[in-house]
């Protein structure tokens, strides 16, 4: 049993979702094994031994870790940095230029933030420079980013590349293992599976939405709820009621127009009526499907997307699992279809 006082005192560590806290690293056994063995090493859980003979087939190519924002990619690379012999401080777009790359001596070079937080022009320029660097210097580029790194127009700059195929989804087992490891570290007890109400755990780690479940968003949500706990010795429980109170009293959806309010209400109704508890929503919503909810207000799908859908996705109400792209008008579409409900949107459908 954990008390409210214990959880509040250690919440920053228990629910940390950035590299600011040196928390225990949990799970990702398959992806760590794949990367270590792919680079020519022997995988052992507790080994930090430097790989001295890197797989010669990797030279002159990119090794790509591409997954949605907030899924723990950079954390994984930091854990593996000693074994791969890389600087845990990556080169990011905006600093990826010939002057910087010409000074590199290490065999494996780490590039990060190749994602929608960056302007398309910067990503494009960085990938161009990386491709030229690989051809010229015959190094290995470890590229980390979201699904932007699956855009074919960017991949064409690279002489050769391969993806990490075994990067684990963030599901219920994953989150419970993270909590268990951190509770053993900071509270000297194992997670009992009872602190988070079962319905709430099911909602935040919905198996139908595993494709977009975010390590960062789930832990940030739990961290926020921990702030609502009383500071006392009673048994700690994170409940659906507590989550709904947070939604009503604190959450700001960023709604700024009547159209957005109506769109949100229609999505909630659609999920409640057609996909209760998100069952059957594993393929997400298509843009056309969402347009039909509002085609009485918008004459065409492009105006609907630019004026309503994309701004709503940018607020975090909807998750995107599409490949970012530049459209026919030269606009960077950061969050294309398919779309999935965020944690707050899932909560609204359960009220």
Provide a descriptive summary of the structure in words.
By secondary structure, the protein is α/β, with parallel strands linked by helices. It is 41% helix and 9% strand. The protein contains 14 helices and eight strands. The chain has helices at 4-14, 29-38, 73-84, 98-101, 120-137, 152-155, 172-186, 198-204, 215-226, 240-249, 258-274, 287-291, 301-314, 343-348; strands spanning 61-66, 108-114, 140-145, 161-163, 318-320, 325-326, 332-333, 339-341. The longest helix is centred in the middle third of the chain and has 18 residues, at 120-137. The model has no long low-confidence stretch (mean pLDDT 94).
What's the short story on this structure?
The protein is built from 14 helices and 8 strands. It is α/β, with parallel strands linked by helices and 351 residues long.
């Amino acid at each position: 049993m954990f008390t409210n006082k214990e959880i509040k005192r250690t919440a920053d560590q228990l629910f940390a979702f950035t590299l600011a806290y040196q928390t225990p690293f949990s799970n990702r056994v398959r992806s760590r094994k794949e990367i270590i063995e792919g680079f020519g090493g022997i995988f052992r859980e507790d080994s930090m031994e430097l790989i001295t003979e890197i797989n010669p087939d990797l030279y002159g190519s990119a090794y790509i870790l591409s997954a949605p924002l907030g899924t723990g990619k950079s954390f994984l690379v930091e854990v593996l940095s000693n074994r791969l012999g890389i600087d845990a401080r990556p080169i990011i777009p905006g600093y990826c230029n010939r002057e910087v790359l010409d000074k590199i001596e290490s065999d494996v070079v780490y590039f990060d933030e190749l994602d929608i937080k960056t302007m398309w022009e910067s990503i494009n320029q960085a990938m161009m420079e990386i491709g030229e660097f690989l051809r010229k210097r015959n190094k290995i580029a470890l590229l980390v980013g979201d699904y932007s790194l699956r855009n074919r127009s960017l991949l064409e700059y690279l002489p050769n590349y391969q993806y990490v195929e075994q990067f684990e989804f963030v599901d219920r087992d994953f989150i419970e293992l993270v909590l268990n490891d951190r509770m053993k570290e900071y509270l000297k007890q194992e997670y009992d599976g009872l602190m988070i109400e079962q319905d709430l755990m099911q909602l935040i780690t919905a198996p139908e939405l595993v494709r977009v479940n975010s390590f960062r968003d789930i832990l940030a949500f739990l961290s926020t709820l921990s702030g609502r706990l009383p500071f006392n010795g009673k048994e700690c429980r994170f409940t659906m009621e507590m989550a709904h109170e947070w939604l009503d009293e604190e959450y700001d959806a960023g709604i700024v127009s009547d159209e957005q309010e109506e769109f949100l209400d229609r999505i909630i109704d659609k999920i409640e009526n057609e996909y209760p508890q998100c069952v059957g929503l594993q393929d997400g919503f298509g843009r056309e499907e969402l347009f039909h909810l509002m085609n009485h207000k918008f004459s065409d799908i492009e105006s609907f997307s630019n004026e309503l859908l994309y701004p709503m996705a940018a607020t975090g109400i909807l998750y995107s699992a599409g490949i970012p792209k530049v459209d026919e008008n030269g606009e960077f579409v950061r969050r294309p279809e398919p779309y999935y409900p965020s944690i707050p949107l899932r909560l609204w459908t359960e009220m």
